[in-house]
Amino acid sequence: MKRSLGSKKIKTAVFISGTGTNLKNLIKFSFLRNSPIQINLIISNESKAKGLNFAVKYKIKKKTYVFKIRKNAEKKILRDLKKNKIKLICLAGFMIILSKNFIKKFNGKILNIHPSLLPKYKGLNTHQRALKNKEKFSGCTVHFVSSKLDSGKVILKKKVRIFKNDTVKSLKKRVLKQEHILYPKAINKVYSNL
Ligand code: GRF
Predict the structure, then answer these.
(1) Predicted structure pTM score
(2) What is the DSSP code (8-state) at residue 4?
(3) Beta carbon of 170 within 6 Å of any ligand 1 atom
(4) 127 catalytic, yes or no?
(5) Tens digit of pLDDT for each residue in 139-185?
């Protein structure tokens, strides 16, 4: 997986559905000279996703796909990934569960960031559940995507303290800050020569 010295950056697509703070952060990371990735395509299932504005701001190609019939949308995405020579996919708040078939086609080349300490709190509403269970810690995890939801091999995790007066909003904010550090770190861990 490691690149040889002097090789070009890995052509990467980022998939989003919402605000895109992780996307923005990955774009900035990709601009660093030593970053192993370049972002060539931003994909969304939501034409109104706020994060798509970063595509405009940073002049990166963006595409929205209607996921009424998943199979059809995935077929179009796979075609466009091929056309753009994409070798790595970074999911960043992408709210669609990709099919087994899609994941197989990009086996070992899809990463995701999840707002909990996996294997705890797979799926949605992680912060609500962690608070409800009176956890002392939550956090975030970057992992490879496998056909089982939020269960692929973990690359890196970061613990975040939960305080007594935390709300979903305050915890989300604190975890998100760590996500922005963790995602680039995890990419470097897998793909960098440094
Ligand atoms: C993040 O909390 C990420 O862990 C989860 O979705 C959220 C996306 O946030 N998968 P943003 O759109 O990157 O701001």
Answers:
(1) 0.95
(2) P
(3) no
(4) no
(5) 999 999 999 999 999 999 999 999 999 999 999 999 999 999 999 99
